[in-house]
Amino acid sequence: MIRVLLVHDVCLVRSVLAEWLRHVSDLTVFDAEWRGASGSARSLRPDVCAADLERVDSHEMPPLGDLCGRGTTDPRLLVLATARRPGLLRRAFDAGALGYVDKEGSPERLVSAIRRVAAGERFVDDSLGFGFLRAARMPLTSRELSVLSLAAEGASIAEIAGSLHLSNGTVRNYMAAITRKTGARNRVDAIRISQGEGWV
Asked: What's the predicted TM-score (pTM) here?
């Protein structure tokens, strides 16, 4: 049996998808919202964490590192994504995700992906290819994306620094680099450009 933790913030979607997956004979399925996902992953010790990349309450990247590790006994990470958000794809890749399923695909594709990822194989939906191409040409680093995501929520320099455990000066340096790399005039313009590109 493959033990799966399904992580999704929308209760109705999570509940229906988890119930559907429970009818698959070789899967044992648990579900959680992002707020309790890391605790569930530690206590349940699933083989695969299948996580939706978009959080309801935040533009910030979900804490994917809390769901998977790099060891052989750690859960393997599979993400539910769209090609429209290449920034999220890039950050999931940087976090070590092994599988990428298009949220607009069929539940059967998710089952195939879970089985492949549980076996230690990579799985990438073809429909996400363009999103990965856009992610490859994205000029921002993962840390810069984290800073920019918080700035897009309206966080101040001090709030960003506190959230990411950085100094205010370091956050200002990141914002200056983001502005330069995006060709923006200022912080607001950098946010606008990055949202238009699907980076945040």
From this structure: 0.76
pLDDT of the residue at 134 = 83
Q: 161 is written with which tokens?
A: 């620094």
Round the average pLDDT of the chain to a whole number and report it.
88
Amino acid at 98: L
The total of other beta-carbon atoms located within 10 Å of residue 60's CB is 17
**Which of 128, 148, 54, 125 is closest to 84 using CA atoms?**
128
Among 159, 181, 161, which residue's Cα sits nearest to residue 171?
A: 161
Coil vs helix vs strand at 22: helix
Q: Which tokens is 54 given?
A: 């978009």
Residue closest to 146 by CA, chosen among 52, 59, 34: 59
d(CA 34, CA 189): 30
